[in-house]
Design goal:
- It contains 22 helices and no strands.
- The protein is mostly helical.
- The protein has 2 domains: about 240 residues, no CATH class; about 240 residues, no CATH class.
């Protein structure tokens, strides 16, 4: 018990000990503000659902319970940018006289008791107070909220298992794809979906306090906890003992000689290509993004799931922004491994920033080309995908490039399971959130005041303006970065894996 309490205390102190804690008060303010905002937003949605479903043929809580599967899927996706796996927190304790198995078990327990698992209660609690109390009183509300919390704890351990396996082999993405694909088939293929009925009965069991439902849920949590514990122990053992197969030989090496004509910028584009295509961690991330963009593009082009204007535009924007998020959220983090060498050559950082901007803007052609199928099928317009693409290449990437000034954590190129540095800082998470919000801040007023065509042209013009002036604002980023280079280099050295 003392170990568990000590680990919880360490978790609370982790952010305060981070070198960026005192330097990013504005970031912390926005993090707290957004947390309060989303809590209030979920309360508003829960209240709206409660009154909006009153005229339905069945009770409102029956409708919401039958859609619990969508809440679980959304919760699963939301955890990726915000939640770390326990494996990222093991390494600092490995040299201490603490049993590794006990350490992993307690970290898993701490994850299950995380406040993130309480987030959805801001939606379900007000909904239950309005709808459930009519028939089951406050006791029904209490058991319902406890059931929802346990369901989120189960989803937490399911997420940890998938993310842990994904960090080891990219092909484990087939596991969540198979599970959610099977659920989708069960929901939409039969006329009378057993999936909706099963979740409806599950929610009914929460409200009535059915002991068998709670026991089954606790058994599922225990099983997922045990599987996570075994998997994490095995993978950490393999990484710490360097048992990974290193006999694979590179048969062909490309020197990308066509980049010679672009001088120093071309040299750093060559370096970035080698990093992206030869390093296992970077290559896995690239494959994951390509698969996600291809899947979303296919859904948009060949189904009517996202045919409405709002969702249609959201997923077009998402296809572009997710590529920039991968490329720039840890900007200069990989270079932290060899930043001292880069600083020995004049103007090398400026050429590196230029190379990254040009190269990853070219990568944005991938979602553009994939979404041309949507143009052919009539689900998208050419102006639409051009507008969102150029806006991402311009203002969105401009925002991401500001991170180059402040990022001072080395992202390890080899450690997968035990690396804590790969987890995003608050500033990176804020930038990621802003990257998804900024396009809508520009797009929505133009749609309201004019129409979609004008909005797309506005995105396109703004994007071109930032692209054409990129040399100027990249020079500004470079100048600010060089002013604080010694602070950043100190941070890069301190955060390197040893």
């Amino acid at each position: 018990m003392n170990l568990f309490l000590e680990l919880r205390r360490h978790g609370r102190l982790a952010d305060k000990r981070h070198p960026m804690y005192e330097k990013s008060r504005f970031t912390r303010f926005w993090m707290y503000f957004m947390a309060v905002f989303w809590a209030g937003y979920l309360i508003f949605i829960g209240t709206t659902f409660a009154f909006g479903f009153e005229g339905a043929a069945v009770e409102p809580y029956h409708l919401l319970n039958s859609g619990l599967v969508f809440v679980l899927a959304l919760d699963f996706l939301m955890r990726f940018p915000f939640q770390k796996t326990p494996t990222q927190e093991v390494k600092p304790y490995l040299l201490l006289p603490v049993r590794r198995n006990r350490l992993i078990d307690f970290l898993l327990i701490r994850s299950g008791l995380s406040g993130f698992n309480l987030l959805w209660l801001f939606l379900f609690a007000p909904f239950a107070l309005i709808t459930v109390t009519k028939f089951y009183g406050l006791w029904g509300v209490l058991t319902y909220c406890v059931g929802i919390w346990l369901l989120m704890v189960l989803n937490n351990y399911w997420f940890l298992l998938c993310k842990t396996l994904l960090s080891e082999r990219i092909w484990w993405v087939l596991l969540p794809v198979a599970v959610y694909g099977g659920l989708a088939l069960g929901m939409f293929l039969p006329d009378d979906s057993p999936v909706f009925d099963w979740f409806l009965e599950l929610g009914e069991g929460f409200i009535t306090g059915n002991a068998w439902v709670f026991l089954a849920l606790l058994a599922g949590i225990g099983l997922m906890w045990w599987v996570n514990s075994r998997v994490i122990r095995r993978l950490i053992y393999d990484e710490l003992n360097k048992t990974e197969d290193t006999t694979v030989e590179v048969k062909t090496l490309s020197e990308y000689r066509f980049l010679d004509r672009y001088g120093m910028t071309g040299e750093y584009m060559r370096l970035e290509l080698k990093l992206m295509l030869r390093n296992k961690m970077c290559r896995k991330s690239l494959i994951a993004i390509v698969c996600a963009v291809a899947a979303i593009s296919a859904v948009i082009a060949f189904t009517d799931v996202y045919s409405s204007g709002g969702m249609n535009n959201f997923w077009v924007m998402y296809n572009y922004v997710i590529v920039s998020l991968l490329a720039f959220s840890t900007l200069m983090g990989y270079e932290g491994n060899y930043m001292d060498g880069l600083m020995t050559r004049r103007e090398s950082i400026f050429a590196l920033l230029r190379a990254k901007y040009v190269l990853y803007n070219l990568v944005l052609l991938l979602p553009f080309l994939l979404m041309l199928t949507g143009v052919v099928t009539g689900k998208l317009t050419l102006l639409q995908i051009l507008g969102w693409g150029l806006f991402t290449a311009g203002p969105v990437n401009f925002g991401f490039f500001q991170l180059a000034v402040y990022n001072n954590r080395t992202v390890d190129l080899n450690a997968k399971m035990t690396s804590r540095n790969n987890a995003g800082t608050g500033l990176q998470q804020l930038a990621s959130f802003g990257a998804f919000m900024l396009p809508w801040i520009v797009y929505l007023p133009l749609v309201v005041l004019f129409n979609e065509t004008v909005a797309y042209w506005g995105l396109l013009v703004l994007g071109l303006a930032f692209i054409l002036t990129s040399r100027l604002w990249i020079r500004n980023v470079y100048t600010r970065l060089m002013k604080r280079r010694y602070k950043n280099m100190e941070g890069f050295r301190d955060s390197r894996q040893r």
